[in-house]
Amino acid sequence: MRREEAVKTALKVGFRHIDTARVYDTEIQVGKGIKASGVPREDTFLGTKLWCNSHHPDDVEAALDASLKDLDTPYVDPFIMHYPCTFQWGADRFPKGAEGKVIMGKTTFVDSWKAMEALLKTGKTKAIGVSNFSKDEVQTLIDKGSVVPAVHQMKLHPYLQQKSFVDWQRANGIHTTHFSPLDNQNSFYREVSWSKEASHMFRVINCPTLAEIAKKHGKTPVQVALAWGLNSGRSVIPKSVIEWQIKENLESDFLLDGEDMDKIAKMDPKARFNVPSEEYRWQLYKGLDGVEY
Q1: How far apart are CA 148 and CA 152, in angstroms?
Q2: Which of 37, 248, 254, 272 sits a CA distance of 20 to 30 A from 106?
């Protein structure tokens, strides 16, 4: 199924949150899928992300404009900073020097954030947020910015629960969204150069604890993993281009009881499956579970 058709199918079966990013190269297909679905734009929650080569304050609005053009929409609901690291300003998304390493930019993520704050007055985005930030980096935005991030889209699944960080964000009014809520189910995260040994452990969907809970509710382990996020008061954004999986994902909005939630809470091995810090020349997730610095 093409991405355009997947978006159309997702909206037709009942999904309303559609997530994309400039670096995914899916914005044109997403825009077409939304139009083809017949679901009014105002009834969807559409977000995209600012990529690292467009962090310069003079380029942030232009980057959003380019995304809006491809999405064929006058606004997005959240505009999210994809990573805190900055690459050299320009058209190349992964600019590399003679030694083959990515060329870092001179802009700080605080500078980029302030440019994003200004976009709220334009009507081109209803909210701004971040992705792949550490606690200290989020705190820096709170301290030096004028707008607290509305949302943090981060790796979160039963093998990497990050409870203290999530609780801290909630206390600061920041909503948490599970990105890649099944994580090492996706072969990409097992095969990339920055995948960690933990990515080859039991896949989240094959976890015996999730299988036990799934059997109890007449659901699948995938649905239990997604339901865990929803029952915790967070959002989840599963990915699929297969119609039956899209429908199955939608049917994950069911109640887990206290016993179920306790069992999942106890299975947290703090396994972060991939960390592209060396490739991006930035200590990503510093101080968080699953990293060693």
Answers
A1: 10
A2: 272
